[in-house]
Amino acid sequence: MLDEAVRLFGESGYRGASTRELAARCGLSHAGLLHHVGSKQALLLAVLEHRDAQDAQDAALTARTGRDRLHALVEVVRRNASRPGIVELFTVLSAEATAADHPARAFFAERYQRLVEQLGAAFTDCAHPDPVSAARRLVAVVDGLQVQWLLDPEGVDMPAQVLAHLDAELARVPQVAATGGRPQPRPAAVPAPGAPT
Length: 197
Prior knowledge:
The chain is elongated and about 60 Å long. The N and C termini lie far apart (73 Å). The chain has ten helices and no strands. 71% of the residues lie in helices and 0% in strands. It has helices at 2-16, 19-26, 30-37, 40-58, 66-80, 84-96, 105-125, 131-151, 158-170, 174-179. By secondary structure, it is mostly helical.
């Protein structure tokens, strides 16, 4: 049922998606669907959690570390570019969830905290000088690009922009480019001729 709900929200967005249509797609009565999910809002939260879990699994995000994990995020962004309804749903809800009484507030707060921790660990693996700040900037770039892409899907290449941002962040660690994310030990200083050894 959740896979079908992801497809429906992806096609129609949250406002356009109907629980009656979802029930029909799943071969359930409307009352039967509501018995299982409780409400459209509850279904929505389940869909968002399911989408995150599916993205993490498909991109093997939790199995990757360092630079590899950061670049796996680009694949998730590329995938999102094929499902505007889900991106719109996420973008609208994340903004609405800033209200103190919104039912999705806890979900988004926990999600952002988890993302910053995971991406911060990846930047740490790359020896980034400020990994937590780099993680927050990356999340902000991805979210901001989603809004711009929804407004101008032909003019905004989300994956390319995220990749460019990542390259700029990792360029702050000179040894990353040459070593794949592991800092190299500094060579021992060579004493000047005539200096005491």
